[in-house]
Specification:
Blueprint: E1 2-3, H1 9-13, H2 19-26, E2 30-35, E3 43-50, E4 53-56, E5 65-66, E6 73-77, E7 80-82
Parallel strand pairs: 1-2
Antiparallel strand pairs: 2-3, 3-4, 5-6, 6-7
């Protein structure tokens, strides 16, 4: 999980050439990018490794991303990440 910044937001969400590509190559099963104030993305962008590529990790009916790796659910409530 990481928080976007002005200097990294493009690489943070680029799944073809940015961090998503690197995470997939490293075998990272899930990753989330948070933007608590919605400056660069709409709150949360999340991906799961499917085969050798990252696929969008959609929120559950409760609006939270439920991890398949850890017994947690993650969301933004206002500007705070909640687990």
């Amino acid at each position: 999980m990481e928080v976007v910044s002005e200097s990294t937001h493009e690489a943070d969400i680029d799944q073809a050439r940015g961090k998503g590509y690197s995470y997939a190559r490293a075998g990272v099963p899930e990753h989330l990018t948070l933007d608590p104030i919605g400056q660069y993305i709409a709150g949360v962008a999340a991906w799961r490794l499917v085969g050798e590529r990252c696929s969008v990790w959609e929120p559950g009916q409760d609006g939270r991303r439920h991890s398949e790796q850890l017994p947690v659910a993650i969301a933004l409530e206002g500007a705070q990440a909640v687990v």
